[in-house]
Amino acid sequence: MKILEIGDKVYNVKRNGFEDLARYTFSVVVKTTKTLAILKNGVRLKNDPKISYIMEDVGYSVYRDYATHWHLVSLNAIRQAQIENEKIKAVDWFQDKIFTLKEKEMIYKQFAEADVIKNR
C-alpha cells in the first residue's frame, strides 16, 4: 500500500440509498503534507492507506470523515463511471421529457416488440 503523491488520480463513489445510481467524482492530488493529501477539488484525505473493501482493496479516508473513502483510479473504475453516467443521462432525460402521444405509441410499440410488455 502506497501513500499518495502529487499527481495521483483518485475517485470517490456516492449513492443516496441502495436504489440510487452511483455518482463518481474524480480528482487529482495537488499537495501533500506529512499526514494529508489535498485534492484539486479541495477534499483533504488522510495519507494513510487502509484496507477498504468499498470499491477497491485500498482506500484513503477523508480527513475527519473516516466512513468516506477515496481510491486510486483504475481502468475498471473509469469504465464503471462511464456506464453509470449513461444510466444517469437516461434517467434524467426521461424525467425531463414530456412525451407526445405519438412518442408514447412509438415507445410502447418498441417495448411490445421486445416482449417486455406482458398482456394482462
What would you note in describing this structure?
The termini are far apart. The mean pLDDT is 90. Strand 2 and strand 3 form a beta hairpin. This protein has 120 residues and is α+β, with helices and mostly antiparallel strands. It has helices at 75-96, 101-113, and strands at residues 9-14, 23-32, 36-39, 44-46, 50-51, 58-62, 65-72. The chain contains 2 helices and 7 strands; from the N terminus they run E-E-E-E-E-E-E-H-H. The protein has one domain (1-120). It has a 7-stranded antiparallel beta sheet with strand order 4-3-2-1-7-6-5.
Keywords:
120 residues, alpha+beta, 7-stranded antiparallel sheet, 7 strands, 29% helix
Category from helices, strands and their pairing: alpha+beta
Strand content: 25-35%
Number of strands: 7
By DSSP (H or I, 4+ residues per run), the number of helices equals 2
Contiguous runs where pLDDT drops below 50 for at least 5 residues: none
Strand order of the largest sheet: 4-3-2-1-7-6-5
Please report the distance between the alpha carbons of the first and last residues. Answer: 57 Å
Rg (C-alpha, Å): 20 Å
Principal-axis shape equals elongated
